[in-house]
Amino acid sequence: MFPKIVRLNCFNDFKMLKRSLRNRPDFTKNRYKIPRGNYNYLHDDHIKYFRNLLGDERLIMDLSDLERYNVDWYKQVRGCSTVVLKPKTTDEISKILSFCNKENLAICTQGGNTGVVGGCVPVFDEIVISTELLNEIISFDENSGILTSQSGCILQNLDNFLAEKNFMVPLDLGAKGTCQIGGNVSTNAGGMRLLRYGNMHGNVLGLEAVLANGEIIDCLSTLKKDNTGYHLKHLFIGSEGTLGVITKVSIQCPTRPKFRNVALLGLQNYDKVLKTYRLVKHSLAEILSAIEVMDAGFMEFVKDKNNKKLPIDDYPFYLMLETTGSNESHDQEKLNKLFEEVIQKGLVLNGTVASDAKKVEEIWSIRDTISDGIKECKAVLLYDISLPLVHYYRIIEDIREYLGNKCLTVFGYGHIGDGNLHITIQLDNYDNQLKEDVENYVLERTLAYEGSVSAEHGLGFMKAHYLDKIKAKNTLNLMKNIKEMMDPKGILNPYKVIQKQH
Ligand SMILES: Cc1cc2nc3c(=O)[nH]c(=O)nc-3n(C[C@H](O)[C@H](O)[C@H](O)COP(=O)(O)OP(=O)(O)OC[C@H]3O[C@@H](n4cnc5c(N)ncnc54)[C@H](O)[C@@H]3O)c2cc1C
């Protein structure tokens, strides 16, 4: 039997945060040695303005309270902001931005602070605008399944709200107890169900955002069909807080399936993983809602760091697949047929399946709690890439060969249905030169295999320097022109995505 599941929630996050502060990272400005932009420094008149607007309780300036806004989830980056603002309305955000723009003060928008590329915390002393109090659900239309909310609503809370109405959010990620819908839209988050429901570009029907100069852009459509000119919402989706602050979002939500099965399969090699994946897709078709791959290194890590017992163990590869549907016997019949076929074809060595809600959660928790273990590592390098499936696992083998005994472990796992691979490299100690060498190697290999160096996490601060290596010159210029037009002073999330020469 599995130990009790610990899902991510605010209480656990807080406990982990406390632990993490004990060995917090160096300041980003020292570790990365980049120059501060030519922005103003905060002075008393600025604080006076913010205090008048928000009141004392929505202005954080106490050093110990500031820490959790300055350090990211995996303790990889650390800013030194001296003020966090907690607006509740679009109007307040508009006033803050208009003021900051006029005063040439840089800002960093922060949602749930679960981003893993250093986009959500300041690099220097940028003012943090936390969206955590923009947490109102505005409307839900039970005919169309369209939900409109403020951007600071926690994804899990939205899903709980929808569950009562037999609907669900169209995305699911391990951080759902903490991340916010605005953060999800700003990062174009992927997650486990992208395979079935698509990404945020497909699910966001409309949004409201505030530009750098405080102007409010209302693209908050709740229509599924509306071909009237340029769809500006797409500019904000995935722009990681560099083009505006998203304040409201409307998304389409699918109906909640009644029945769920989750299976964990053990396999011999990657070739069999790929063959099984193809079979799974064709056999389960419309009821397949997620498929994840994990290698033996992942499972060893989870067992070791998270103290997890596995229902099946000691296989080189694992596939975790989920079906969701409205007819229990139909779904189970399909699954049984699939299992017969994969065993008979010698593709799968062993497997277990669960349909009881508690067991389903237990199996999912093997995948979901990986981040707890990663957080405990002294030095770790993380990559989130996507690759054509024929090359998918070769890169892990390449990295192992490249690093030899310079690292403790290299393992891979990810949303195989989207070609998305997460690579974890555990080191003895944090070593700047080794980090740079590995980064260049991963970039070179990923491009050689015609993949992307950021599948779903974005570029943030840590991957922004990739941009001129991966985009065609004219594409990059167009991106820079758009940024320049929407945020001429570059006050929105500087040093992220597009790095300006300051
Ligand atoms: C355990 C764990 C599992 C994860 N799993 C996945 C996964 O499966 N798939 C995936 O895609 N990601 C995953 N992530 C990464 C992360 O959860 C997502 O990127 C998420 O969408 C970030 O949301 P957030 O509210 O925490 O945003 P933050 O981390 O606070 O911010 C992320 C970026 O968005 C910007 N931003 C935030 N809110 C706004 C806003 N309202 N307006 C403008 N800009 C804004 C920030 O400036 C920053 O650049 C995972 C992270 C963890 C820790």
From TrEMBL:
Family: Belongs to the FAD-binding oxidoreductase/transferase type 4 family.
Pfam families: FAD-oxidase_C, FAD_binding_4
Organism: Phyllotreta striolata (Striped flea beetle)
GO CC annotation: mitochondrion; peroxisome
Main location: other
Catalytic activity: (R)-malate + A = oxaloacetate + AH2
Protein name: D-2-hydroxyglutarate dehydrogenase, mitochondrial
Subcellular location per the Swiss-Prot or TrEMBL entry: Peroxisome
Segments forming domain FAD-binding PCMH-type: 77-256
Taxonomy, superkingdom: Eukaryota
Cofactor: FAD
Key words of the record: FAD, Flavoprotein, Oxidoreductase, Peroxisome
Assembly and oligomerization: Homodimer.
EC number: 1.1.99.39
GO molecular function: (R)-2-hydroxyglutarate dehydrogenase activity; FAD binding
